[in-house]
Amino acid sequence: SRGVRGKGQAARPELLVAPRAILDEGEVRRAEAGEVVGPAGEPLQLRIGAADSAVTVDSALVELEATYRPQAWQVERSYAKGSFSARRVAMHPKVSDAQFFRQARTRATRVRLDARDIAVSGMASGSTLMGQTVARHFEIGRLELDAAVDKRYAPASKRGRTVMPPQGFAAMPWGFHLDTLVLKDGEVRYTEIQASGEPSRIRFTRLAARMTRVANWDPTGPIQVAARGHMYDAGAIEANFTIPVHPEKFSMEVHGT
């Protein structure tokens, strides 16, 4: 293998000789690899169809040695069409909020994520073999994001510089290149639990956004984001973001009302 390096990016492996396997049709009735089972413990249903080289998973729940439990429903990857779809993908903590923050022992952010009607098109064939995900269009029909911070716990001691999300995205070992990402409808809730008094809350609803040039290798320019929504279903907000993707420095321009 050899390294693939975009401007200002870390080298990523490129597979020069791709392994090839041919399977006309198959079905896995139950799979236990890292304890992968259905959402209620039922068998994982996996079908491989010969018609369009599609892999379909009816439902899956992944049990890992981690704080969160990812789940997915009606997932299909068609290699002939270069597409991916999922009716729903969710990631929730395994424990209650009280247990989550108590186990963290320092200030931490609890996240609940629920995305529905996911559709990806224009996926480059064989890109995953080279450690990359390349696609033209990524659409999410509905997204719910709930984050909470318990400020009664002291923050962890800082070691080194703070890494912002665009810097972390730039430094990912997996290459990612997406022409357009569209969110049709979303809701974001954020809560801060204080040492005294009621928790502070903020909620954004009816969110819609369009992102272009989402790439962390060989980027053609900064990520452009156009978003609109409402605060507490009342005040309308609209903003445009320009976000350069660089592993060493962070900057962002925001314009809006």
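Above is the first protein from milestone M3; the second protein from the same milestone is given next.
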Amino acid sequence: NSKGDFLPHYQSIKHIGKLLKYINTKLSRTHKLNDITIGLYLPYYQTETMSNNWQMQMQSEMINNFFDGMCRGLRIAGYSFNIIDLQKISEEELFTIEHLWVFSLEWMDSETQTKLINYLENNGNLLLNPDVPDKDLLNNPETILKDYLKIDLRNKHRENIVYDGLEIFQGRENRALITTEKVDVIAVGLNSKNIYGIQKLIKTNKVIILSASLNHLFDYTIELIDKLMKRFSIDKIIEISPVDIIEVHRFNDLDEGF
């Protein structure tokens, strides 16, 4: 401060300085290692021109099911991830991603839906959550991805779901899934026969559809995320205890890293 006394946050800044001095140029020479990639569809985030009702709905979805849902869930469960822009990424780059978790709502343009279909056709593994798009951004029917996945969607219901033996609280109304194909049912309504989650194969690639909120309200979110990642055969880069310690691993082709 103005008297030359150290303020409470001085030690934190000092620690960061020591860390950066130790890491040195390795920070710029390395890249982050990720367990999974998240696909973000930016129109869900760009709400400035939307009407009040749409704006409130989109903001609620982003806060509860993206930031406080899938992103927080993955981090507290100890998984590293990167985020890509689904519209901007080239298909060539997209096809290099082994596992892709797409934050998807009811609305998505046909070009992006087609890109996801092409991803599956080129050996990608896809998780769609918390919904499956069947409309374009003007709220007109656009079912190319839904038709490719051979599923249909019922009207929205609000009920808790059971996923792999875990009862998951739902503050969100979700659309139940309908399919005539042989699939692995992974989530159902607590007190109904509604299906909210399936896993299926397209060629040799895994597709998981989970029509449910993963908002982090309770600690069972960690177990839920672990179960989802095991379905993709994803192991954490490193196990750390306690699990909620945040770690980042960076390496390069010269096996330099930290």
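Note on the second protein: The helical segments are 10-23, 26-29, 52-76, 91-94, 110-121, 144-149, 220-231.
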